[in-house]
Structures are given as C-alpha cells and as structure tokens.
C-alpha cells in the first residue's frame, strides 16, 4: 500500500525533452588518513549534507567508464560490526524536474553477486524506495563500472540518497561520479481536470480515451508502478493498452505547454 500511495503522488513526466544535470559529485581528490564522509572538505557541492560511517579514499580510483574522474572516491566498507557502513546524501532539490535518473561509478569487492550495495531514495527520510541494478558476475568482474539504478526518484525539495553495505563478510564497495539528471518542468503548467479528462480509469476492454478542451495533439507517456516507461505516443484521443498486463499504471499527458497525470488500472 505504501508503494502504491507513493507511486500515485509522484509526478512522473513525459519523455521528449533533454536531460539536465540536477546534482553531480566526483568527491574531489581525496585526503590523507581516509576521513569520514561527514568531515571530508573536498566536495564539489558545499550546500549538500553528507553523513554516515563510510570514508573517502584515494586508493583504487575510478576508471574504465566514460568520464571516470579518478582521485577521491567513497569506500563503503565491510559489515563487520554494527551499524552497517553507509553514505547518506541530503538536500538535493528535484522539485522542478521530471523523468529523474541516477548514474553512479560503482566498484564491488567481489566477483560474485550483484545489487548487494543497497541504493535507496527518500523524500522524507522515513519512507525509502530501493533502486535496483545488475552488473556482470564471475571472474574479473570486481572492477569499476557505470551503473544506472532503476526505480522511482521523487520530486522534492530535499531528496535523500542512501548507499548501504549489507554484506556480512569482508566485502567493500566504492562509488564515484554520482550524476542525477532530469527534464526541467519550468514553464510547464498543469492541466486541470476541467481542461482534460481520461476515461475510463478502470480499463476492462483495453481502451481509454483522452478528451481536452482544445483537442490538440497530445504527447502521452505510460509508466508502470515501478516508474518504468512502457511507451510514448502522440494522439488526439484514444489509447490502446490491450496488450499490457493487468495492474496499476500512471499516464502522463502533455498538450500545448501543459501537463496532466492520472493513475489508471488495467483489469
């Protein structure tokens, strides 16, 4: 239920504009003695809060992917004692963005498994959404790689991103070159329910209709409950979703510089 409520409250926007950098951090050149993330003073973003028991290191610098910055990186060490090792980043403003994506330079200290470094986002610090990723396993895969975790990233004035090492063995992770991007919504106003309507919102025959006062061509994007884009389409009125699985989806519509979002259920 919490997942559904969050899904319907987050505005996931359309797909036809360029990505803009919201936040990026390459952790500078590092410092001697491996300072904890909360006392390190080499960040690019001085208006962002960094906390946790991870530390900044210059060993094993990032490499092997496009724009790898090298030098300083965050080491999120093995879980040998409580609490778990983590990095928490707070204070990122995503209010005026949509279609938000995250890319991270990622190093795993093991050849086995993937997705063990837990990556979560939150708009309030209480309810967390885990983002998921996969990467190769087996001999030679304990390397740097650029990953792009998938999941819903909220629009909020204080986005929090948390990285946690949950492995109970001598395995550490490193991260570098965090890049949060999105499409600006500045200048895009909201369509009201009087100006545009979607019906039915509970779909049993595979079709729903879009009616607006202006009846202009509309850019339609459909997302599943995990925030994954299913398709985009330009239309005046009718959308066919008959081939999709049953479940909850979010429709995002742009028309004449305005936008509208609506939850639908396919039965």
From TrEMBL:
Transmembrane segments: none
Domain of life: Bacteria
Domain Secretion system C-terminal sorting: 205-266
Keyword field: Signal
Keyword Iron in annotation: no
One matching Pfam family: Por_Secre_tail
InterPro entries attached to this UniProt entry: Secre_tail (IPR026444)
Signal peptide range in chain numbering: 1-18
Keyword Chloroplast: no
Name of the protein described by the UniProt record: Por secretion system C-terminal sorting domain-containing protein
Species annotation: Algoriella xinjiangensis
């Amino acid at each position: 239920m919490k997942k559904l409520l969050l899904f319907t409250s987050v505005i996931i926007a359309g797909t036809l504009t360029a990505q803009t950098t919201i936040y990026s951090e390459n952790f500078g050149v590092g410092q001697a003695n491996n300072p904890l993330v909360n006392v390190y003073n080499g960040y690019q973003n001085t208006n962002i809060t960094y906390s946790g028991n991870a530390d900044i290191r210059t060993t094993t610098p990032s490499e092997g992917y496009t724009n790898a910055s090298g030098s300083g990186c965050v080491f999120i060490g093995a879980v040998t004692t409580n609490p778990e090792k983590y990095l928490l980043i707070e204070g990122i403003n995503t209010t005026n963005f949509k279609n938000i994506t995250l890319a991270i330079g990622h190093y795993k200290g093991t050849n086995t498994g993937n997705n063990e470094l837990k990556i979560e986002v939150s708009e309030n610090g209480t309810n967390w959404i885990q983002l998921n990723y996969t990467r190769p396993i087996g001999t030679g895969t304990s390397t740097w790689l650029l990953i792009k975790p998938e999941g819903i990233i909220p629009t909020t004035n204080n986005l929090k991103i948390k990285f946690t090492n949950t492995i109970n063995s001598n395995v550490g992770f490193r991260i570098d070159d965090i890049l949060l991007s999105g499409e600006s919504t500045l200048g895009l106003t909201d369509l009201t329910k009087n100006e545009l309507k979607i019906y039915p919102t509970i779909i049993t025959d595979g079709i729903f209709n879009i009616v607006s006062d202006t009846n202009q061509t509309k850019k339609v994007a459909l997302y599943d409950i995990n925030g994954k884009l299913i398709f985009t389409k330009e239309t005046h009125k009718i959308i066919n979703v008959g081939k999709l699985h049953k479940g909850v989806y979010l429709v995002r519509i742009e028309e004449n510089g305005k936008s509208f979002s609506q939850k639908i259920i396919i039965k």
